[in-house]
Amino acid sequence: MATPAETTVSLNGPAPQEAIHHRATGRDRVTSVIKHILLIAASVIMIYPLLWLVASSLRPTEVIFRTPGLWLNDLYVENYTKGWYSLSYPFGQYIINSFIVVIGAIAGNLFACTLAAYAFARLKFRLRGLWFAIMLLTLMLPFHVVVVPQYILFNALGFVNTFVPLILPKFLATDAFFVFLMVQFIRGIPRELDEAATIDGCGHWKIFSRVMLPLMGPAIATTAIFTFIWTWSDFFTPLIYLTDPIAYTVPVALRSFLDATAGSNWGAMFAMSVVTLIPLFLVFLFGQRFLVKGIATTGGK
Amino acid sequence: MALNRRQFLVGAGGLAAAATTMGLGACAPGSSGGSGSQGGGGGGGTNLALAFWGNPTRNKNTQAEIDAYMKANPGVTISGQPGEFNTYWDKLATQTAGGNAPDIIQMDMNYISEYGSRGALLDLSKVDVSKFVEGTVDSGKINGKLVGINAGINSALIFANPKVFEKAKMDLPDDKTWTWDQLIEVGAEVASKAGVSFGVASLMGSDALFGTFVRQHGKELFTENGLGFDVAEAQAWYDLMLKGQKAKAFGTPEQASEESSKVLDQSAIVVGTAAMQYYNSNQLEAVSAAAGQQLKMLRGASLAGKATERKTWYKASMLWSASAKTKNPDAAIAWINWFANSPEAANIDLAERGIPPNAEVLAAVKPKLSPAQQTVAKYISDIKSEVATTPIAPPPGGGTIATVLFRHGIDVLFGKTSSADGAQKFVDELKSNLQS
Amino acid sequence: MSAISELSTIHRAKAKTPEEKRLLAKEAGRDNKAGYLFLLPWLIGLVLIIGGPMIASLYLSFTNYSLIQAPKWVGLDNYLRMLSDPRLHKSLAVTFTYVIVGVPLQLIMALAVAMLLNEGMKGLPFYRSVFYLPSMLGSSVAIAVLWRQMFEVDGLVNQVLRKFGIPATNSWIGDPQYALWTIILLHVWTFGSPMVIFLAGLRQIPGMYYEAASVDGASKWAQFRKITLPLLSPIIFFNLVLQIINAFQAFTQAFVVSNGTGGPADSTLFYTLYLYQRGFVQFQMGYASAMAWLLVVIIAVFTAINFYFSKRWVFYGD
């Protein structure tokens, strides 16, 4: 078997196709500068709303909607210092709740979706096509009509006002999105590697854990990151299941700053929104590393 | 395929992780206490769940009220479930569907018949309403049964922005004698002289002011049998809106459309682009605070030019109801009774929910109210001679009248449909909503 | 391209000894048990958490269910009423427009940016995070408020247009003609999720293919067509299928931007938004369930079409 060396693509080094033709011509440099300028301009457009959010979080509520633009005259930090304490509990409580739910959800998704994806992608078993179609079907039914029967179910089991309805479904691979995502990734991995392992005497479990999982790095990282972000921002499920304010997650808590009928504390709400963005941003910033570590190889071990 | 050690460990690890997070989840704060309607709960004593929508101020007030009540009534534990108005109803509907509705429910006029006429609300006739101002009890009656206790009086009216009128060098209009046409005239004049977009904003979608309009024409919004008015009245309303638009008193259709989805803090009168705007009396304090100035209250207009004939009424800004399935009906009624009739509750609430309907309680708490709330209290008592009989609560399907009214109206304003056709579609849709 | 074809044939033409062939055959037979064992968590989830509620909702679609009282059987009534419901037809039109315009726009944006960010350059993690940020915020109330403001008559967008000399006097968000486009734009702005997935897929393409192609003198565009697109096709397919499925069910952005109303004169009344209104606001969960199952049929048809045509352009390694 040919064994070309494993090439690990580094995070921001030159991509493979540029490694060969690297001649720093003047034209290359100009192109690079132009590219950077365009990217920076595009970035500003992309994050303008976020900049507005941060700027508004540093203004008192009465001023927010009367002041267009980003320029700040003073920094009104009370939105942060007072906003943290202005709900029934210090905002940290809600952040902790969200973390608990999110970590449970990630563990669940990684555990269950990888298993199911391996089955769908690599194993031939009876009715596989039917189950796959059903799995896709579960993605197609709007959740608003499933919510009430599910609530009745969880209520009968006594799980209302706990985190169970938010976490347990993840351990049972109810996020068909990630199952399908991983199926597509696995199908992109050459079968020869499986066959090589089989010939070496590995059963399915070993193939799954020793061959597949390491190669699915980007898919696993994507799943973890998306689960984090989507679960963190999930509003409706915590809304209906959590009745005790001490258990509220971040999105529900953020809504509590608002009152459609009387004045809302927009300043504090924006401030806390910015605060809760930070974990999301950090997760993505550090998670990228795993996202892009592709192992470019054609051989096995 | 026998499980080897590796497989077993990973599988067990996965299960352990699941168990831990679920154990963590099950031990989530509040889960052991749970919502009171699960039963007698805890260790002896009564448990009640109290659901309400609020804001940081009301949340704190309500918790203080709960604490005060629990102190005076040892043996009763109340857990508050605060929420936010728009999403409160999704949660309540889901809880009710699951048989898990909270014991005490803060209720709104647009929803009370949905729940009340379907048997989801407890009969509250045992609550003492003898001291309630006349006309404030009937809002909570559905099919003759009292299922909601008025938690705060309010009335629909128009706020005026004094600074805009100053800029236009105009006096505030005489709201006791103005007709709808005069309202348009004043609106047009102040809008052009002060250079603002709206003379009067948010008029078209106001079901309450539309209600007075309909009643001035001798009809009602709703009757026991369904819709109480017809296409003619709806068309007259849309024609009025078109007239106001043409006179440049009500803003352009785009402005009206944008205004309809603005939040309170962005609304035209707050940011100074409207001279007048439709609001409810209990919102005076909040809107004035957002606007940075004390706004003035103006009565709505009438056909005849007489405030006593404008057929307004005492609304309930919100009501207290109880779940018909509660396991502690007497305890729920006791709490509602306490809130409605004890000065102690009113002293904490300070009219944040609306003016207390119990006249004695109001008199006791009045000195403690903020200046804005005192203005509101005075207004409510001033209009006593002008209020007509309280109309019945919107029947099931009728709670959407404001959005349907506005949606068809916008089509008319944009010129996509005539006022006659728009009125017909509005009435048709409302009728079909009422039927289903 | 000879180096490339050589590499692909290396993949395929590995001779197998009889011994190897026997082991492979043995494995195939064991797949049934293994398959169901691996699938077990998903099957349990299907039965316990999804299946029951799904069947319940199908049942509910034949009933009048107010959520507050028990469901009452009405047979095909809901489905028949859907035929003459003008708001339903409007919501279908709105949703179809959104899917047909919004999905391709967003995916092209996502792929273009992913390709741009796949090449080595300074500040890559920063740019990647910046382009992903909108997706993190996209459904929040805070951004919805700002988005509305930006597209008002005197909002930011019109101000910028006027600076460029374009007479912008209409409202984008307040005019039924244009409101939907602001939401499509919001959807395109949040291209971060498919972009990240494209990135992960791009990174999985072995670099040697590009090296070999460059050695052979292939242009960047030819490399894109002959290497990137085919090897990325499973991921493109995934994004296409799922973005279509998600777009048909788009809810949150329309809900927060239009304040739950469906925008000026129902111009942003997405199908699931109308479904939600019928179910939760108007207490007609039976009708809403019927709407839901109609949507399932529509989405299933589109997905099936996708899968059918996928055989022609999706290239799998196995």
Describe this structure in words.
The complex is a heterotrimer of chains A (301), B (436) and C (318). Mean pLDDT of chain A is 83; it is low at 1-21 and 294-301. In chain A, α5 (91-122) packs antiparallel against α12. Chain A folds into two domains: 25-76, no CATH class; 93-296, MetI-like fold. Chain A is mainly alpha-helical and 301 residues long. The longest helix of chain A is centred in the N-terminal third of the chain and has 32 residues, at 26-57. Chain A contains 15 helices and two strands. In chain A, 66% of the residues lie in helices and 1% in strands. In chain B, β9 (222-223) and β10 (226-227) form a beta hairpin. Chain B has a five-stranded mixed beta sheet with strand order 2-1-3-13-6. A four-stranded mixed beta sheet of chain B has the order 8-11-7-12. In chain B, strands 4-5 form a two-stranded antiparallel sheet. Chain C has a two-stranded antiparallel sheet with strand order 1-2. In chain C, α1 packs antiparallel against α11, α5 crosses α10 and α5 packs antiparallel against α12. Classes of the chains: A mainly alpha (301), B alpha/beta (436), C mainly alpha (318). Chains in contact: A-B, A-C, B-C.
List keywords for this structure.
heterotrimer; A: 301 residues; mainly alpha; MetI-like fold; 2 domains; two-stranded antiparallel sheet; 15 helices; 2 strands; disordered N terminus; disordered C terminus; C: 318 residues
The rounded Rg of chain C comes to 25 Å
Secondary-structure element string of chain A: EHHHHHHHHHHHHHHHE
User: How large is the count of helical segments of chain A?
Assistant: 15
Largest sheet of chain A: 2 strands, antiparallel
What proportion of the residues of chain A form beta strands (DSSP E)? under 5%
Major β-sheet strand ordering of chain C: 1-2
Low-confidence stretches of chain C: 1-13
Q: How much helix is in the residues of chain A?
A: 55-70%
| CA-based shape of chain C | flat
The whole-number mean of residue pLDDT values of chain A reads 83
Brief write-up:
The complex is a heterotrimer of chains A (about 300), B (about 425) and C (about 325). Chain B is of the alpha/beta class and about 425 residues long.
Outline the fold blueprint.
The complex is a heterotrimer of chains A (301), B (436) and C (318).
Chain A: E1 7-8, H1 16-20, H2 26-57, H3 61-64, H4 78-81, H5 91-122, H6 128-140, H7 144-156, H8 164-171, H9 176-187, H10 191-199, H11 204-215, H12 217-233, H13 236-241, H14 250-255, H15 266-291, E2 295-296
Antiparallel strand pairs in A: 1-2
Helix pairs in contact in A: 2-15, 5-8, 5-9, 5-12, 10-11, 12-15
Chain B: H1 5-26, E1 46-53, H2 56-72, E2 76-83, H3 85-97, E3 104-107, H4 112-116, E4 141-142, E5 145-146, E6 149-154, E7 156-160, H5 162-167, H6 180-194, E8 198-201, H7 207-216, E9 222-223, E10 226-227, H8 231-246, H9 253-260, H10 268-271, E11 274-280, H11 284-291, E12 296-298, E13 315-322, H12 329-341, H13 343-349, H14 359-365, H15 371-382, H16 401-413, H17 419-435
Parallel strand pairs in B: 1-2, 1-3, 8-11
Antiparallel strand pairs in B: 3-13, 4-5, 6-13, 7-11, 7-12, 9-10
Helix pairs in contact in B: 2-13, 8-17, 12-13, 16-17
Chain C: H1 2-12, H2 18-29, H3 31-60, E1 63-64, E2 72-73, H4 77-83, H5 86-118, H6 124-137, H7 141-150, H8 156-163, H9 179-189, H10 192-203, H11 207-216, H12 220-248, H13 252-257, H14 271-281, H15 285-313
Antiparallel strand pairs in C: 1-2
